[in-house]
Specification:
469 residues; 4% strand; 5-stranded mixed beta sheet; 21 helices; globular; mainly alpha
């Protein structure tokens, strides 16, 4: 089930992979507000599982396997990946779509893992703090010189000018030092990424190809630029160094496994079909193509644009070719559910849950189908499935919304209010969350687990940038 947790927002076209080092130069308050407000996130079991499979060996090689680092997909068509904290790697949907091979995307993930393994975020904060101290001292000294010049009258105007220069010059030097530090971090992340790829028996060619492509895109933009004012190494220098390092690996010529390539192509087709215009989808995957990814894209696009009967026939053809593919059954259930046939969606979604080893996102879709039938015989089953799903997937509002409906149908209004409050809280609607949680508290006995959870929501302070009304 591919869905977005926030509306799509366009961002400026980047000519290089953005990293935490680049993010560090944004104003702190703005960066925090954006993080707390929540990026436009895409959730999909198939895509997330693929990225987990890409990152797991890399994280193991980096010694980060036990850190529970997650890969989060951002709904943005530009090629971009970055780390913004010590536990998540953010990847734009555009990076998946534009990576023609798994190795190209794995190379980017290896580079970002290099930032995590190197502790670049905490080190950058230290550098920023030191720079801020240095800048304050420089400004105080410069301001003192300007005051002295002003008090001495017009005859010493040169002293005031010198004071102004004393303010500007250290600031420029500090800025250059910071940018130089960022360039060093990028180079270190490149080296670490190649090291992790070699340790896992993978080629660094995809990483090199990706950065070389960005170099070609940015050559005109960087022509005549001051290399000491660039936050990333100058493109030609970076790629030359990366090529030498990558070619030294014994795995340079190793190709991606065909089965992994197919999974990669299927996820690309899925993202294209769900997120791009229909005419764009059919340009990428013309009707003349009989490949499995093309047929996947066609089936999704067909159901999204209203032809349910044809879409189901196309999905059934996919299932016939891969009868144990949980995501084909998930798609069939989602198409039926969104086509107003929740009862018919139950059987394929049960199959999808079983084949996916009880993926919580797919369980939420099954719970939605059970609730959507208006058959009270399904109520207890829906509650059991949804409770299990939200216990493992705590940040998806959909599960709590469906759980609230199931409890409401059962007449358990205390649990219904609590689940509704949790859904509102995850959406960032703090005002509604507090109101519902306050009402839930009056329905629960004081001190019970439900009362404590509701009290936690009532007492929670709104995060900067979230909707609070």
């Amino acid at each position: 089930m591919l869905f977005r947790l926030a509306p799509h927002r366009k961002t400026s076209k980047l000519t290089a992979v953005m990293t935490a080092a680049a993010l560090a130069f944004a104003p702190v308050s703005a960066a925090l507000a954006q993080q707390e407000k929540g990026p436009p996130v895409i959730r999909d079991t198939e895509a997330e599982q693929l990225l987990r499979d890409y990152t797991r060996p890399i994280l193991r090689a980096a010694g980060l396997e036990k850190q529970n680092i997650q890969v989060v997909i951002i709904n943005d068509g530009t090629f971009n990946a970055f780390v913004a904290d010590g536990r998540r790697i953010f990847v734009n949907s555009g990076a998946i779509l534009q990576s023609e091979t798994p190795n190209q995307l794995i190379g980017v993930l290896a580079h970002e893992t290099g930032h995590l393994a190197g502790g670049h975020l905490s080190k950058m904060r230290e550098q920023m703090a030191q720079a801020q101290t240095q800048m304050i001292i420089a400004m105080l000294l410069g301001a003192g010189a300007m005051v002295a010049g002003a008090r001495s009258g017009n005859g010493n105007g040169g002293l005031a000018n010198a004071g102004a220069a004393a303010v500007a010059a250290p600031q420029e030097m500090i800025r250059r030092n910071l940018i130089s530090y960022v360039r060093a971090q990028e180079e270190n992340a490149d080296r670490a990424g190649v090291k992790f790829l070699a340790a896992t028996g993978q080629s660094a060619k995809g990483m090199y190809d990706t950065f070389r492509r960005f170099t070609n895109d940015s050559l005109f933009a960087s022509h005549g630029a001051d290399p000491y004012l660039q936050s990333h190494p100058m493109p030609a220098d970076r790629v030359a160094g990366l090529e030498e390092l990558a070619r030294s690996s014994p795995y340079w010529d190793k190709k991606d496994d065909p089965a992994l390539q197919l999974r990669h192509d299927m996820v690309r087709a899925k993202i294209s079909a769900f997120m791009e215009r229909q005419d764009t989808v059919y340009r990428r995957y013309p009707m003349s193509s009989d490949s499995l990814p093309a047929r996947y894209a066609h089936a999704i696009s067909t159901y999204l644009h209203g032809d349910l009967r044809t879409a189901l026939a196309q999905i059934d053809g996919l299932i016939q070719q891969q009868p144990n593919n949980s995501y084909f059954y998930e798609l069939r259930g989602q198409a039926l559910l969104e086509g107003g046939k929740p009862a018919e969606a139950i059987a394929p979604l049960r199959k999808a849950v079983a084949l996916s080893n009880h993926s919580p996102l797919i369980e939420m879709l099954l719970g939605q189908a059970l609730v959507g039938t208006d058959n009270k015989a399904y109520t207890d089953e829906a509650i059991g499935i949804l409770r299990a799903a939200v216990a493992r997937e705590t940040e998806a509002p959909l599960g709590f919304m469906q759980l609230a409906m199931a409890y409401g149908r059962k007449g358990d209004y205390a649990e219904a209010d609590l689940a509704s409050a949790q859904a509102a809280f995850l959406r960032g609607d703090n005002k509604t969350a507090r109101e519902l949680a306050a009402r839930a508290k009056t329905r629960f006995a004081v001190g019970t687990p439900g009362w404590v959870k509701a009290d936690d929501i009532v007492a929670a302070k709104p995060m900067t940038g979230q909707k609070s009304n």
